[in-house]
Amino acid sequence: MNSILTYIILAPLIGALVVLLVPRNFRFIIRGIAQAATLISMVLAIKMFFFDFTTNFPREQLTEKIQWVASLGINYHVGVDGLNVGLILMGAIVAFAAVCVSHNIKTYEKEFYILLLVMTGGILGAFASLDLFFFYFFHELALVPTFIMIGVWGRGENKNYATFQITLYLSIGALLALVGLIALYLQLPLGNRTFNIIELTKYFKAQPMNLAAQQFIFPLLLFGFGILVSLWPFHTWAPLGYGSAPSATAMLHAGVLKKFGLYGLIRIALPLMPDASQSWLHVLAVLCLGNIVYCGFVAMRQRDLNLLIGNSSVAHMGFCFLGIASLTLIGITGAVTVMVAHGLLAALTFALSGYIYQQTGTLDIRQMGGLLRQIPFIGAALVMAAMAGCGLPGFANFPGEALVLFGAWKAFPLVTALAVWGALVIGAVYMLRAVRNILHGPMAANQTPIADASLLRKLPYALLLATLLLFGFVPSLLTDKIKPSAQSIVEMATRPLKIQKMEKDSSATAPRAAVK
Fold first, then answer.
1. Which terminal residue of the chain has fewer beta carbons within 10 Å of its beta carbon, N or C?
2. Handedness of CA 346, 348, 350, 353 (dihedral sign)
3. What global pTM score does this model have?
4. What confidence tens digit (pLDDT) does each residue in 321-352 have?
5. Cα gap 323→304, rounded to integer Å
6. What residues have CB less than 8 Å from 211, skipping those under 6 apart?
7. Is there a contact between 166 and 310 (Cβ–Cβ < 8 Å)?
8. What span, in angstroms and rounded, lies between the C-alpha atoms of 258 and 441?
9. Number of domains in the chain
């Protein structure tokens, strides 16, 4: 093992194994092991992020390859480039914050931290994998704990229904994606079949896949990955699932794991099936309006804080889909930036809602009021999270959404205009109204005194906010890394159109030259 990525993935998995060996009554030690494991991953991810990528960029860096099943072309293969470097960093930061806010878990604490660490290892492995088999395997490794954690440690009367719904939807989405990935693998000649994403990209760049195969596989990946990301109208599992989930589970799934589908579309579907993408991205552009506008209106009607945040999270995914649909350098760069920014924001908002629930015993916004006087730090963090959700300059969401809108304007002007209205008007209404009702005005009649976070427990919230502000004030830290990889994706995805246009232009000028 000579790649820092392997250590980033292994740290939480080894931590889960160590926790398994610790007696369950050693609660402090169990929690400490989980925090140490995720802290190691986060520190290594920070070191990785600031690695000098200028050599051979945008090719994958820090790679490691270990042969596993040679007959099927399956290898443990990890690497990092502009598309996943920010996602891995964001995932490691969110995982550490999620462990830090889980101190309220009192039942089956050992099992909870084991599942949380396995989920973290799966998430980081999925984004680092350059092999389709492990890409999918690590995702499923992270997905299974989600179902268990909602069913066992979830809250609310609807947690069983939420567990059933999220299991059903995500299983269907994962199955569709699996069929598409297997069909993609079978497009290679029998002797050259491999799951290596780099080799697949090189092969289909030299020998484009036939159109019929593209038209069969691309929609499987589009809707399979789309369901995993809560693409409208297949989104209904997300708000209810997050509303019932423990805070740490919602932070990791809504913030990080849900980006797996978006990453799969950018990394695999667009470059390998460019012809099919041209005919389906217009559909995606229309559907993303359902995320931005419809889910925004639904969020306006919510009185449960977690359901409001859940619908807001689904709405923000619309900007990622719009950036992908634009198929421009600016749009793809913006989509990846939004993925990183939203991951940090979703984790922050669900962590804050979890703290408020612990203190007040309710998530009903109508039963809150005047909390800013009692919890000034948490209240200030909630205000900043609301501003970030509204796309206020200074937070990482702003440059990402701005790039998406600029990139999509030429291809989809009407959709882009409606997206701007959805972000600036609808988003501002439900976020600012929630802040007003929760933090300002008179205190609720039945409100008991509550305490603000202690100095040590402020750490995860401060960490997430600081990262949002860092990428907001210096977005080039992200975008300069994303651009070269996004450029190669766009070139492959638009290559057939360029070739067709050149052939059309040459055929149009040839007769005139002959006559002359």
1. C
2. negative
3. 0.89
4. 999 998 889 999 999 999 999 999 999 999 99
5. 30
6. 275, 276
7. no
8. 36
9. 1
